[in-house]
Amino acid sequence: MSATEEQRLGNDALSTFIHDANQNTFATSRKLRPIYEHLAAIAGVFELARGNLSHSASRQGPAFLIRAYSCYLGSARLSTSGQLAEAYMVLRGCIENSLYAIHQHANPHAVKTWLNRDVDVEASKKVKNEFAIRSVRLSLEKIDKETARITQALYEQTITFGAHPNPYSILAQTRIEEDARETKISLGYLECGTLAHLNCLKTNAEVGLASLHIFNHIFKTRWEILGIPERLLALRDPSQFEKYKQFLPRRLPGGPPPKTAQPRS
Hints:
Elements: H1 13-31, H2 33-50, H3 60-81, H4 84-106, H5 109-115, H6 121-130, H7 133-143, H8 145-163, H9 167-171, E1 174-178, E2 183-187, H10 195-216, H11 220-226, H12 228-235, H13 238-245
Antiparallel strand pairs: 1-2
């Protein structure tokens, strides 16, 4: 579906990029329909939770949930359009908001430390120590070892593929063409229909599910009434991730079959 001239934002590089990204998202939603529906169903659970926060005794918990949800939506917008490294940056944010929430839930004293972050230099240092990734991960591990293991693996994956400017996030999409006169270097920032794209979409789903499992420990009673645990079990079922395999890029004759990481949630 091509946009009319009236639908375009303008005739400049930014407008062209936004138009192309929108087109990619639309194409992903059609050509990878089962995957898109899986991502949408996970967003639906977030939305159900967001609409039922009035019974929460905590102020910070709901705020972190909404921010994690926003990160999930943002990363889905990026991953479906083909901005893969950028999607991993936002997925890291989804994980960190979830871990901050469970850490404060398990350690009420940490709320005051967090709120006083900008009081002075010492307060800022205290927050950095209190909310170091190893500390917040440990709080989750004490409550749910399996989700902690999955979350750590996903966190490391976001770091590798884009949350930090590591070799893979920079070089994987870099193309170098050389001849006797010059060297041309280009970097693709909208990549769809590749194994990297498929893995990013799957990671998007896995991070969303891991986040929801973490928040389930904070809103357990209310979420049981809403039936959210059952919905999460259905969405993390291995059959859901079998859908991703049908879209693996075709291999060359005689070449090894392409692989994706096994689902972690």
